[in-house]
C-alpha cells in the first residue's frame, strides 16, 4: 500500500478518492461481512481493532502538519482546500492525507435503529398543553415519549352550564358525538340528538360547537389551560338541512342571483355539498383591522378557497380580491363577550380563529354582520365549505339509527302483560274496550284525572291553587323547561346559546308580578316574551296566556296545549331550552 501510493500527489478533497482509500474501504466492509458470518466472533471488538489499525496506518503515513477540518460527509470545505494547495511540501515529508471518519458499525446501527423507531411513531396530541415546553407546543414530540407503551386513554374535563365539571376518561379516537352519547347515558338525559360539545375560550371570549366527527383529544391539544368543554343543547346544529331557505337569503347567495326565480331547497343544498359547484356567499361585513381597534365596512366573498374582500367596491375580478382568512386551518367562532371588548359596531360578531393561535388576540380575524340572519348565514356557509358532505353524513347518522330502532321499538311483552286489557268502569257493569283509539283516549283521561282531584282538594283546603302547598302550584318546577327566577337577559343568553331556532322556549318566574309567569319563545331568530297571568272563575284560579280566553289549571297543561296548538303564539312550542347538571 505504501509503495503504490507514495508517488501520488493528493491535495484537498481529492485525497479522499485515492485508490488506497477505496481499497481500505472495501477491506473494511469485507471484514464486517466476515464477522457477520461468524456467530462466536465479537463484532464490536473486531471493528475497534480495525479502527485502531487504520489510525496507526495513517499516523505513520501522514505528516504532522496543521489538521484540516472535515465535514460530516467526509469532504473538505472550500477554504480548507485552497489552504492545502498553498502549503509547501518538501521531498523529506510525506503527503498530508486527511483522516477518514471512524465508522463504529455497531453504534451506528443501534442509533439508526433507535431513530427509525422514534420517527415511525405518530405525533400524539398533548392532553395537557399547559405542561409543555416554553414553546407551548400542543403536540408531544416522538423524542419526548416515555419508554413505556402509551395506554391510549386521556382524561378530559367537561363542564355543564351551571359551572360544575366532571372528569371523563376517553380513548384517543373518541369523537364529539360519541362523548355526547356517553354523557347522555351517564346523566340519564333525553337523547334527542341535539346535545353538543362546545369549545369555550373565556380569555378570548369565543366558543364554537364541535362537529360530530371531530376527535376530542385533538381539539383539546390546541386549547389552553383556561379553555374548557361545555356540554349543552344545540338545536341549530343541523337546522339548515331542514329549512335551508331560512339560513341562506337569496341576496347573499351568488348563484341565486344569476338564476330567475327561487331555487328549490334541495338544489340549494346540493350546490353547497357538491365539491364541483362553485357557490359563494357575498355581502357587506365589518372587518376589524389586525392589531387595531378600528373597523372597516368591506364587500366580502366566501368561497371554498377562502374568505376574500374586494378592494374596489363590489368587484369580483381577481385583481381586486384579497384574502382575509383561510378555511382549511381555521374554525369559525361566536363572540360571547359583547361589543364593548372589541369596540364592535353591533352585537352580531363572529370570529375566524386559526388553529395555531392560542391566546393571541391580534391573530384573530374579527368580523361583524349587519343582523342575526346574515351572521348565521356566514357561519353556516363556512362550515359547509370546510366540511362539505361530512356534515350531511353527521346529520343522517341519527336518523338512520332511529329508523333501525323503530323496527324493534315494540318491547317483548310477558304472558301476564298480554293478559291485560283496557276496561271501562264508568257504568254499572265493567266492559272490555276493544277499540284501540277508545282505549288510548281513556288512558289520557285517567292520566289527567289527578289534576281534577287536586283541584277539588285545593278548593276545600287552600284558597288558591298557586299556594305553595298545592301540588299543581309546584309541579312545574320539576320540568326541564322551567328555569325559576332567571332574568330576561339570562333567558336571552340561554336561547341564543342553544340555537335560536323556531319553537325554542322556556318558562320562568315573572320579575314584575310575583304571581305570574313568563313564556320566552324564539321565532324567526327573534326572542319574544308572553306573560302568563292568573285568573279567577267561579272561585277557582286558572292560568291564562290570552286574557282568560284559554284557561289552564297549571303550567304543564298550558305547555302541552301550545305544543299541539299555536293559539295566540307566533308558532308552536317545539324545543324546550334545558340544562343538565353533570
Automatic annotation (TrEMBL):
Pfam families: BPS (PF08947), PH (PF00169), RA_2 (PF21989), SH2 (PF00017). The keyword Nuclease does not apply. GO terms for cellular component: cytoplasm. Residues 152-236 form the Ras-associating domain. Residues 278-387 form the PH domain. Residues 481-577 form the SH2 domain. Gene3D superfamilies: Phosphatidylinositol 3-kinase Catalytic Subunit, Chain A, domain 1, Pleckstrin-homology domain (PH domain)/Phosphotyrosine-binding domain (PTB), SH2 domain. Belongs to the GRB7/10/14 family. This is Growth factor receptor-bound protein 10-like. It comes from Sinocyclocheilus anshuiensis.
Amino acid at each position: 500500500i505504501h509503495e503504490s501510493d507514495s508517488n501520488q500527489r493528493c491535495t484537498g478533497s481529492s485525497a479522499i478518492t485515492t485508490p488506497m482509500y477505496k481499497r481500505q474501504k472495501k477491506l473494511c466492509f469485507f471484514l464486517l461481512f466476515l464477522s457477520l458470518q461468524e456467530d462466536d466472533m465479537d463484532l464490536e471488538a473486531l471493528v475497534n481493532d480495525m479502527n485502531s489499525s487504520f489510525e496507526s496506518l495513517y499516523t505513520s503515513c501522514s505528516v504532522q502538519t496543521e489538521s484540516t477540518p472535515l465535514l460530516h460527509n467526509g469532504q473538505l470545505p472550500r477554504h480548507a482546500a485552497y489552504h492545502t494547495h498553498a502549503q509547501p511540501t518538501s521531498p523529506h515529508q510525506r503527503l498530508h492525507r486527511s483522516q477518514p471518519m471512524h465508522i463504529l458499525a455497531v453504534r451506528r446501527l443501534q442509533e439508526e435503529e433507535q431513530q427509525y423507531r422514534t420517527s415511525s411513531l405518530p405525533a400524539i396530541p398533548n392532553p395537557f398543553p399547559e405542561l409543555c415546553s416554553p414553546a407551548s407546543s400542543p403536540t408531544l414530540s416522538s423524542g419526548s415519549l416515555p419508554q413505556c407503551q402509551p395506554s391510549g386513554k386521556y382524561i378530559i374535563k367537561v363542564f355543564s352550564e351551571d359551572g360544575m365539571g366532571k372528569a371523563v376518561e376517553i380513548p384517543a379516537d373518541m369523537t364529539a358525538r360519541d362523548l355526547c352519547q356517553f354523557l347522555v347515558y351517564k346523566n340519564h338525559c333525553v337523547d334527542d340528538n341535539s346535545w353538543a360539545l362546545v369549545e369555550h375560550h373565556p380569555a378570548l371570549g369565543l366558543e364554537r360547537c364541535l362537529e360530530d366527527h371531530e376527535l376530542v383529544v385533538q381539539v383539546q391539544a390546541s386549547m389552553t389551560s383556561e379553555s374548557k368543554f361545555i356540554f349543552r343543547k344545540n338545536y341549530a346544529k343541523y337546522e339548515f338541512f331542514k329549512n335551508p331557505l331560512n339560513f341562506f337569503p337569496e341576496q347573499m347567495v351568488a348563484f341565486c342571483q344569476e338564476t330567475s326565480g327561487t331555487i328549490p331547497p334541495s338544489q340549494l343544498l346540493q350546490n353547497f355539498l357538491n365539491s364541483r359547484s362553485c357557490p359563494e356567499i357575498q355581502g357587506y361585513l365589518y372587518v376589524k383591522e389586525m392589531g387595531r381597534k378600528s373597523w372597516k365596512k368591506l364587500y366580502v366573498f366566501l368561497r371554498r378557497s377562502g374568505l376574500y374582500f374586494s378592494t374596489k367596491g363590489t368587484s369580483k375580478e381577481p385583481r381586486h380580491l384579497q384574502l382575509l382568512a383561510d378555511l382549511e386551518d381555521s374554525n369559525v367562532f361566536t363572540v360571547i363577550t359583547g361589543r364593548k371588548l372589541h369596540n364592535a359596531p353591533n352585537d352580531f360578531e363572529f370570529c375566524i380563529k386559526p388553529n395555531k393561535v392560542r391566546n393571541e388576540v391580534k391573530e384573530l380575524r374579527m368580523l361583524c354582520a349587519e343582523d342575526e340572519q346574515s351572521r348565521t348565514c356566514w357561519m353556516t356557509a363556512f362550515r359547509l365549505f370546510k366540511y362539505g358532505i361530512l356534515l350531511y353524513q353527521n346529520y343522517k347518522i341519527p336518523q338512520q339509527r332511529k329508523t333501525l330502532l323503530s323496527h324493534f321499538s315494540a318491547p317483548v311483552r310477558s304472558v301476564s302483560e298480554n293478559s291485560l286489557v283496557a276496561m271501562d268502569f264508568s257504568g254499572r257493569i265493567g266492559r272490555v274496550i276493544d277499540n284501540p283509539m277508545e282505549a288510548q283516549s281513556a288512558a289520557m283521561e285517567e292520566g289527567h284525572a289527578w289534576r281534577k282531584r287536586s283541584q277539588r282538594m285545593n278548593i276545600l283546603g287552600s284558597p288558591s291553587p298557586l299556594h305553595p302547598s298545592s301540588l299543581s302550584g309546584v309541579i312545574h318546577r320539576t320540568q326541564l323547561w322551567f328555569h325559576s327566577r332567571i332574568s330576561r337577559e339570562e333567558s336571552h343568553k340561554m336561547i341564543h346559546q342553544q340555537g335560536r331556532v323556531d319553537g325554542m322556549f322556556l318558562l320562568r318566574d315573572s320579575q314584575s308580578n310575583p304571581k305570574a309567569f313568563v313564556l320566552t319563545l324564539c321565532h324567526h331568530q327573534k326572542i319574544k316574551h308572553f306573560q302568563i297571568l292568573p285568573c279567577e272563575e267561579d272561585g277557582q284560579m286558572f292560568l291564562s296566556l290570552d286574557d282568560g280566553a284559554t284557561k289552564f289549571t297549571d303550567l304543564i297543561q298550558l305547555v302541552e296545549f301550545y305544543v299541539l296548538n299555536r293559539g295566540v303564539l307566533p308558532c308552536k312550542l317545539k324545543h324546550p331550552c334545558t340544562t343538565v347538571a353533570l
